[in-house]
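Figure 2 data, in text form.
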Amino acid sequence: FNNPNLKKKAIKDWMLFIVVIVVVAIDIFINFLGTAIPKSQLEAIKIRDREHRTSVSDDGISENNFVFVCTMNDSVIWLGVSFAYKGLLQIVAIFMAFHIRRV
């Protein structure tokens, strides 16, 4: 980086836009795979709801409140893949920032 005879190449704005679009597309793809591939299951769990208690209407109809929970078996794997990708992006960004600063 300290070569005085170095030919300087300017990075054009459209090149940076393409890089940003590719990085965002990869991130969207990882998030899409993380939600589409694992089979998430919606379960009704009976939990005493303290905010909305069971009530009886004027017609004598009982209204019960349930809590629905969406569970996924492989969520840790997809979170790890997503965080690893974002960590790699951070390392590359720091590397590029230091090298651009030296020039």
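Caption note: The first strand starts at residue 41 and ends at 45.
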